[in-house]
Amino acid sequence: LALRYPLAPEHPFPAAPDDVDAALAEAEVMNPELGPLNLGGDSAGGCLVLGAMAGGMARGQRYGALLLASPAGLIDVSRPVPPADDLLFPVSILRRIARDYARDHDPADPRLSPVHADLAGAPPALIRCAKGELLEEDTDLIAAQLRAAGGVVTVEKAARTVHAWHFMAGGLPVADLAVARMADFLRRHA
Known about the structure:
It is built from 5 helices and 4 strands, in the order H-E-H-E-H-E-H-E-H. The chain is α/β, with parallel strands linked by helices. Helix 1 (15-30) crosses helix 2. The model has no long low-confidence stretch (mean pLDDT 91).
């Protein structure tokens, strides 16, 4: 199930998490015979999946595996950001996204910034990011939050690549390898 969620600035927070929460709750109700769902997301999608997963776990849902690629975890317009730009994801875009999406919402809201969510009971997680990308710190923060909640987390950082390079699979060998590693993780944990 791949979700198309509403985008900022036309649809600021909480429009996207509301849609993702509703879709996940519907998938859980409609497909109970499938067993625990596996969840995944990249970049902003990683942020949305984490928030939705925390909400689902609060409702008593359990999930099979969590797969994140270059996830956003802390949406805060006052947050200091690294001085270096990622080739595909410059600092200016990160600041604009935070401003247009979050508006005046409290950055400690776990649906906005899932590093503040209660992640107790989270499934095994694989988090991948590019070494040196703008969201590498978010990867570390999310991994620390999951571990603090008792989760089993594997973090893999790829050198000499860019934010969410996984989508270049089929045209870039390092992306093909990344997707194969994610598939292996799902086969082991799903």
